[in-house]
Amino acid sequence: MPATLRDRILDFLNRHLFSVLSGIRFERWMTLLKDNRFAVAPRYWPRAAIITLNSVLNSVKARREERLFGARIRSTSVVSPVFILGHWRSGTTHLHNVLAIDRQFAAPNIYQVFFPDTFLCTEDTMAPRLARLIPPRRPQDNVALSFEVPQEDEYALCVSGLRSQYLAWVFPKRQVHYERYLTMRDVPGHEVTQWKEAFLTFARKMTVKYGRTLLLKSPTHTARIRLVLELFPDARFIHIHRHPLRVFVSSRHSYDRAAPPYFLQVPNPEQWDDLIVSRYEEMYSAYLEQRNLIRPGRLCEVAFEDLQRDPLAQIRRIYQTLGLSGLAAAEPRMHEYLLAQQHYQTNEYSSLAPQTRALLERRWARFFAEFHYEMSGIGGALPVQRER
Length: 388
Prior knowledge:
The chain is 53% helix and 6% strand. By secondary structure, it is mainly alpha-helical. It has a single domain, classed as P-loop containing nucleotide triphosphate hydrolases (Rossmann fold). It has a five-stranded parallel β-sheet, sandwiched between helices. Helix 7 (154-161) packs across helix 10 (189-210) and helix 12 packs across helix 13.
């Protein structure tokens, strides 16, 4: 579908002016700038100026929200959430969208994760105004965007806790520093505590808002199972995986299209392939190390290829494995949604260079074997998944 003038304007605004830090409070914004020695590239000064203005307003609104809801938030208990895990570009968003149709769950939306400190007192008035500024589709693919669709909670933790791997995109000059937050392995104890507090506060606020079981999806949680279980011991987990070659080429495309709204410093795209390879290794090494901490009957693993082939069968398997009820009421609406997605067009990618494939075969060999995938050409068709 050809882009309209409005689509192109919104794309420009999101790539050059708007920011994932739109909801940050002034004091946190100053802390972040100080930690990075105020090293914002000149081309991103307009974006930084907009963040600064918004941050002052966010701080005022956050104080009002604390007065109105603070005591209630702190006294609220969170029903054990359901977490969707998986590397970026593995189908986590699609699965999140399908499961969120079940009304027993509450999934955070774009407004709530971008404005985690103020959404309880501002969403009703501000979300309709800001909705006009959201592009109709994500920049990296054809997935629809709106305030009605679920969004990943890592954005909320980035804004409210400042302990997020996503800040590596905002300040790529300190890539190594922020990459630590993917697994939290080499992070000081007080920073881990800050991350936990931010996460628990967001979960409580979502519970105040909806009073239902939270359905949370962030690829980063795939590498933090131990910490997630410390907060939510009875949580359930769904892990979706996809052929690693597809993940690589899709991630490469996504970095080029989806990363610009993050930047406050000029990145080096020549490093992106290495980042994809190392992040995948780090994430799945942590996942395989910590997966056995999940209690029996609390983890269901799904192949994206199986979900694509027979989605309702996989959804039924998820509910059965995790002991979830309520599917009968939600399945007709899920079926209707899935029918509407039948004509969804995925991105097309060129074949990988032989040397890149050889590198992935060597570096990711453990994960090909773990998830039962074979090395094969990308071409037009999906790579073959080996029978389990």
